[in-house]
Every structure is written in C-alpha cells, then in structure tokens.
Amino acid sequence: MAKEEVKTDLWVASQLKDCNIKFDAQGSHIKEIDEALRTASKKARVKLGTLSMWL
Prior knowledge:
Blueprint: H1 2-18, E1 23-24, H2 31-44, E2 52-53
Antiparallel strand pairs: 1-2
C-alpha cells in the first residue's frame, strides 16, 4: 500500500509541476499552515500528507 501512495504522490507532484503550481513536498512555507499541520498530526496521530500546495 505504501508504494502505491508514493506513486500517487509522485504523479500529483508531476501534474502540479506541469501546471506551474508551486508546492511544498511536506508541510507549507506559510508559517500558520505549517504549524497547524504539525500540531494536528501529533494530536490526532494521523500521518501528515506529503504534498501541501502553496496558497
């Protein structure tokens, strides 16, 4: 299952690049969003997604 998720993440990344959409591979360059993602993942014990688009 993990390999399929990696394949999907790489495919999404290539699609975003093709469309000239900037993204962070993990987290966000926006301080508030990055903090919310880090905090939420620890509180809920949920794995943080691998792609976060820049707003």
